[in-house]
Structures are given as C-alpha cells and as structure tokens.
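Notes taken during the Thursday session

The instructor put the following on the board and asked us to keep it in front of us for the whole hour. The protein is Sulfiredoxin. We were told not to look anything up and to reason only from what is written here. First, the residues (126 in total):
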Amino acid sequence: MANLMMRLPSISLRSFSVSASSSNGSPPVIGGSSGGVGPMIVELPLEKIRRPLMRTRSNDQNKVKELMDSIRQIGLQVPIDVIEVDGAYYGFSGCHRYEAHQKLGLPTIRCKIRKGTKETLRHHLR
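Then, after some discussion, the predicted structure tokens were revealed:
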C-alpha cells in the first residue's frame, strides 16, 4: 500500500488518515497530511459529509441514474467539492454524484477539500 499526496495551492489541513483502497472503481486515494497547501483530493466516508442543502433541493433522477451507470463502468471522474470547517466536512456541489454513490451503496466518495471558516460556510448557505 502506498501513501500518495497531492498538493494544490492555497490552504493547509490538519492530519487526516484515509484508506488506500477504493470501492467505487476510482484510482487509489490521494491523501492529506499536516502542513499541506491548497485543496487536497481524498476519499471521504459519505456519512462524514454534511449536505445542508439536501433538504431544500431535489436532484434530477435521470441524471443520478446516468451517473450511477458511469460510476459503475469507469468510476467517479470528477471529485465533489467539500469545505472543511473546524473538523467538519460540508458538501455544496456534486449533489447528483453524491446521491449516485449513496444509491450504489458505496461507502466513500472522492472529494476536493478546501479549508474554510464559519463565514465561508454562512456564505454558501445563503
């Protein structure tokens, strides 16, 4: 098992442990460590991602089904965007991809994580 890290410009994350296996057909995890800079690509458990807009929005079920078929065949191609605020993860984009993973029974989803503040979070909830 190899540990991989991807650094993109802009922020740092606290130490984060992830598994190097993937159950959704995607490439292995690219994980984080302390002192990283910029968004990091990691596989997060679905239950760790809070979806505050799910209660107010509905997804196009045809699009979810198409994504399910695609994920089964080639894996997730584009990670969802997640904001980490005080150790909690919030997803505001990738609603259809997230639901497709849920319906497929996949335990994790590839995420691009950016560190944010409570103010950032309030901005996304408007």
